[in-house]
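Module 6 notes. Inverse folding takes a fixed backbone as the condition and produces residue identities as the prediction. Think of it as a translation problem where the source language is geometry and the target language is the twenty amino acids. Below is one complete input and output pair. Work through it position by position during the lab.
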């Protein structure tokens, strides 16, 4: 009698559970994932690693060069868009300090080729001189 009652209770409950289960288990017809169709955005190019020239003595000229845009066009030991600073140092002497500082402020071309150096109008002549002093200190 007891088992009869149990069966009477369990069977409908079980079938209910099974029924609701089988309902959720119906596999949906695979639909193309709309997000998969979207073309992935082009990978963002990593910005070039900032050029850091060690400055153990705290050279003001070098510091200014690091803080300005100079190193996007110049490297110390190899030509980039502009001549390397070592080439510049080899070509000039302290007598050219004033002219070179003015050239950094005004920009210009012709001494190394046809690519012009951008002017640096916000730069003071004094700061430009400090930069040139650093560059000339690279003379070997
Ligand atoms: C847009 C690129 C660019 C930037 C930025 C730039 N330069 Fe130049 N630089 C050049 C080019 C190109 C030349 C060669 C110009 C020429 O042929 O007379 C040059 C030449 C020079 C020269 C030699 C000038 C001569 O007449 O021989 C010095 C010194 C110099 N740059 C220093 C600097 C300093 C310091 C800065 C940062 C304040 C700087 N440059 C930023 C491109 C650049």
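Target side of the pair, the amino acids:
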């Amino acid at each position: 009698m007891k088992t009869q009652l149990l069966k009477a209770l369990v069977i409908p409950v079980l079938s209910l559970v099974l029924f609701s289960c089988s309902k959720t288990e119906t596999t949906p017809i695979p639909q193309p994932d709309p997000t998969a169709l979207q073309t992935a955005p082009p990978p963002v190019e990593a910005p070039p690693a900032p050029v850091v020239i060690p400055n153990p003595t705290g050279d003001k000229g070098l510091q200014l060069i690091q803080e300005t845009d100079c190193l996007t066009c110049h490297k110390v030991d190899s030509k980039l868009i502009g001549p390397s600073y070592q080439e510049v140092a080899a070509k000039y002497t302290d007598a050219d300090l004033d002219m070179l500082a003015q050239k950094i402020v005004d920009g210009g071309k012709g001494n190394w080729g046809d690519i012009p150096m951008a002017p640096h109008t916000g730069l003071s002549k004094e700061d430009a001189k400090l930069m040139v002093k650093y560059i000339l200190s690279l003379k070997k």
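Reference fact for the lab report: Helices lie at 2-24, 34-37, 60-67, 85-91, 97-106, 125-136.
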